[in-house]
Batch of 2 targets.
Target 1
Amino acid sequence: MRKWFICLFLIFSFSYTSQVHAFSKQVIQRGAVGDDVIELQARLQYLGFYRGKIDGVFGWRTYWALRKFQYKFKLPVDGLAGETTKQKLVRASKYYKSFVYNNLRKGNTFTHYGGVPLSKQVKARKTKKQATAAKAINTRANSKQMAVKRVKSAAVNVPNGFSQNDIQLMANAVHGEARGEPYIGQVAVAAVILNRINSPSFPNTVAGVIFEPGAFTAVADGQIWLTPNETSRKAVLDALNGWDPSSGALYYFNPHTATNGWIWSRPQIKRIGKHIFCK
Amino acid sequence: MLRILLIGALSIGIAGTAYWGYREHQQKNAILIHAENNYQRAFHDLTYQIDLLHDQIGTTLAMNSRQSLSPALAEVWRLASEAHATVGQLPLSLLPFNKTEEFLSNIGSFSYRAAIRDLDKQPLNAEEYKTLQQLYKKSADIQQELRNVQHLVLENNLRWMDVELALATNNRPNDNTIIDGFKTVEKNVQSYNETDFGPSFTSIEKRTKGFEHISGKKITKEEAKQIAKMFLGLKGNEDIQVVHSGEGASDAFYSVTIKHPKTKSETYMDITEKGGYPIWVIENRPVNKQNISLNEATMRGLQFLKQHKFNNFELYESTQYDHVAVLTFVTAKDGVRIYPESIKMKIALDDGNIIGFSARDYLSAKRERKIPKPSISIEQARKKMNPNVTIMEERKAIIMNNMNQEVLCYEFLGTLGDDTYRIFINAQNGMEEKVEKLQNPEPIYGEI
């Protein structure tokens, strides 16, 4: 198995060729994701400016690397990869696209420094899945289909202070609580969770608020563990990014099913779909 | 023969069912007991923590030297936040128990602020001392009440599961000891509000963001409709509905829902009643491909702001989520960024249209302000920084500090190791107001 792998990598490292044409026309700016960012990171790494992971997300490390490059090459230092910067970068560096994409696809740990043989820059990820992935790639290599397919980035942008797992947990709660509601109602439910985190009368964490006994019916009856759809995830992201359709509400209830009399005594802010949001 | 067989089969069936039922019952009981035990642990923990809290506040009252007072106050802070977390584990969220939680959280922030302060230079003043004494008394009341409930719980073998059931079904028996006990606690704390924490504390407390500074006359539903049309550039054939906010809203507003007849997508928008400012907009539609770059989206965002008379804005943050750009703009005046005045925008990267807008922060912070002259130079501020941080960018900025006051700062962007930090040094007294570690992109876990 091991040998097989090494063989495979050898074949790959011979077959990789650096590409001349590069980058789409866009000006790349911090926060961007996608193929251009992968190329930008790889090229900056080739020249030794960027020492982070090539993950396809234009974060702070890429930003500083780009600025350093602009400074060294006597370009205006603005942290934007515009036309001139990209041209200079392409002229100064090489980019082994298929090498980068193959490793991204396999989830390997790899680098893309200039002057070091590519085969020495990969540390394969050892997982069970890899066997199947390698097989798939093997067949692909055999059939000489080395065309680079669109690859998913190895990282994503997340709102400050929250992880993908927090987003997932909140999406679960929103889906369980409000999946039949209009989109805005789902954003509002997510916003209520966030308002509670900031309120002194409630726990201070995502999990603390969601799992507070009796706080959400979807948690009590297990609907929270339904698989959330893309809409609820989008709603959570909007709420995390600062949209609050509930206008600071801490509670909401469905007037048809609410059994607790106390909730009616709260000052009501607005109604969205079936839910009444209140202070 | 057949009959005997049948009877035999049936009795085996019955016995099997009975055994299965018994097992189910046992399992259900085990889970119930497990849940009950969790509640019991949280409850007994809470009483114990309040005990400790009460004692600890008592000890701080008797202390004088900074060396012992600071750690003691820090301990109060720890106990208060622990108790606050424990309350969150009890099934009380349907019971009005907020005041108690708020009280605990306020004790926490009060003691925290006192603990981190240099008590040699700025010892506790008479007022704060009085606050501590009152806290001591209040916590004694809570402790008494909780101890009482605890005693009854233990003596009568009361179960928290019953409380939960009673709260959920709303036919609470009048003599539910636990509920009554907690209600008494709540009533006790209610008499003690924020202002008792001293005048400095109220300004510290996070105020709910209201739009006190906006001006203008009250608008009508029809005007709200017009504003929405203007702001969103509608064609006029859309179905628009306007609803006024309820009496619980801190600032009255209109909620506008716009249905587009062609695309069937919906746009939602809130507009303040006073002055008719747009608070936020969200359009929900799928964005499946990218045609324009994040950079171009930024340009469009800035142009949109200019068009709608939001002047002097510059880009602060830009982030791309799939095919949507989320942008944050802040105002800048004479080269000073005013961070509280921020506007967020969502721009679809397929056609470059604005699909989200939020001016809540801007509306609550916007006012005429005079930017003060800094008393220290940027060189002096630079010296206040951690020497290990490499400074990459610097500028002046106004931010909200921990005490919820606006302060003029020198802002430095610097790197330390692989991470980037945003550091604010107060331009008047050189204090390090805020240090933020900026978010790195998060790797995707568990995917090939």
Target 2
Amino acid sequence: MKEYLRKYVMLRKHNMSVAWKKAKRSKMCYAFLAPYAILFTLFFILPVVTSIFFSFTYYNILEKPRFIGLSNYISLILEDDIFLIGIKNTLMIAVITGPLGYIMSFLFAWLINELPRWVRSVAVVVFYAPSIAGNCFVIFSVFFRGDAYGYVNAFLMNLGIIDAPILWFINPTYMLPICMLVILWMSLGTGFLSFVAGLQGVDRAQFEAGYMDGIKNRWQELWYITLPNMKPMLMFGAVMSITQAFGVCDVTMALCGYPSTDYAARTIVTHLFDYGYSRFEMGYASAIATILFLMMILCNKAIQSLLRRVGT
Amino acid sequence: MSRKEKSIEKTTRQHKRLIKRRKPNRSVWGDIFLYLYLLLVALIMVFPIVYAVNSALKPLDELFMFPPKVFAQNPTLDNFSDLFVTMGKSWVTFSRYLFNTVFITTVGTAGHLIIASMAAFVLAKYDFPGGKTFFHLVTVAMMFSGYVTAIPNYLIINALGWIDTYWAIIIPAFASPMGLFLMKQFMEGLPTSLIEAAKIDGASEWKVFTGIVMPNVKPAWMTMLIFSVQALWNNKAATFIYSEERKTLVYALQQIQSGGIARTGQGAAVLVVVMIVPIAIFIFSESQILETMASSGLKD
């Protein structure tokens, strides 16, 4: 055992010295990397670390942070009913819009892949535009206006389905479904582009080999040839849609107000803003951020291990 | 050549084209159904945008017409000129908001392009201790959104003394992980022999980077540009910037919309200004962006 340990330490030492020599020789690389690495550490790594640190303290900016152990987490989960509403809403939005948006992205990318070249480029613009149009989703507040002049209300009343206008963004029953609709409308984003590009790169010869081997229809072609070829893009798209699905707040805040009626459209991120920017309870807000961080990373890891099995 | 021969030649050509285009395992009805379906979805996707553009072009009487028409009957640019005329008299003029956003977007994007490409170059083309670990960290950073780091970011920017300046938005944007990721993946496709040849000819690393690598990855520039512009142009910046004269266009948009029904036309006009820029850039650089995205896959 002792012998083994000694050898292990020696090996480590040797590896370290080799790495050190290599590092010395590649000074230029570090010089190129330095500006980005410094900023990245400052605005991405350091914040995550400090966020975890502050989540164990009581901190209100004015006083020095005071260590209080796990009590932020305990009160979040056991006492804060509104946070539980936030978690429930975020999970509902994530579970419905995340997979649906992801499948839609792939499906449309796959369908437009066979269109003639110029139609395809028009189609890409049309499908991708909502997600880069920025705040264009506020136009939905015109469609779903609460009085009888709102288009959806007027339409439904003319058909005789309802007899009084519905307050779409004030009535808690309708808030989340409409927000999900808007989020789905915007969900063909970066992942969609990645899919479109990836599909064009699939080797043609594989399809021809597939015809010879008796692939009958487009669904078999999809499962046996296209999907296995697209694995890296599928991973990338999954990362994009998970990150987006858990970070929902723009749409709910802009359409349902902040705070919304009965907190019916509260998400984790809105709760974070409430405690961080309105009440300045930075410790508590950091605990929320840490929980969100863990949810995103764990979900990503889980989905990635799932996607590795595609087409096998 | 007789007429008969010509017609035969024509039909064979048609056959050949048909065989070339159609995949053998597709049914015609399936195709027709799919195209109709795609057309329907495309109309739904594009409707809100078309509606927004048209309301910006509608004169006042048409904006409040009932039942409403989607397309403007007598399109005018009054709403856009109103932005500069009515809001030209307010304390912070519309052009100032526009300038703020243009400034933040241009400087932020330019810096991001240079800094992230430099890092991507060494990560893609050199093997040095720590490089792989660093890139792995960057891919992990893509897995959580900016909201997670919002609070500590505020504290850090406060410590740096950048609160209420443009830098609070611009400098963090330099380090966006997405741009670095796409650039690095694309640069890996460049032949290493190209770089080695230049080195044998005596070019320094900086020369290789500016003279050989950068001109060869132009598609990736466009991709970084669109993602960076999209993020910065839509940045509300409400948490970092308090002075009215430094606020951004999206913030102005919200103010105008909260101005109520009298500002409907102007609100629609700002909305068009906000969304037209990213869409226009995307339309012009679509093929290059798709070329870059082809190498966007996450391998592990």
